[in-house]
Write a structure and sequence with these properties.
Elements lengths: L7 E3 L3 E9 L3 H11 L5 E14 L2 E15 L3 H11 L8 E3 L3 E3 H10 L8 E2 L5 E2 L2
Antiparallel strand pairs: 1-6, 2-4, 2-5, 3-4, 7-8
Length: 132
Amino acid sequence: MSLADLPVASGAELVVILCTFPSGNDWGEIAQTLLGERLCACVNQVREVSSVYRWQGEIVTNREVVCVIKSTAARYSELVQRLTELHPYDVPEIVRLSVDSVNQAYLDWVVAECDPGAASGRTDGDGQLDEI
């Protein structure tokens, strides 16, 4: 099957967010919390970057990590609120990107993972958790 044959859905339900964090592992702890609360399905740390910006009248240079967070439109407001609470910056960068389309299987997975009523893992039918 080629990529052109994969079912494609509108991207309106998928939310992709860019967020920077101080260099270190703050992002990992926050990612675990967001995932545990089912506010997102996945957080990718892309890489460490050098950021240069104006803050309180001065030009500042810092090392940061860039994260890409995948969630749903239905969970977006709660995600932004919680991310703002947890984030170490006074003014965190939370940028929502527009998604035109997404492959249906990935969208289905994101929606299932962001369902607040879903179980925390898959079971084998006897209540035993299976690794995903």
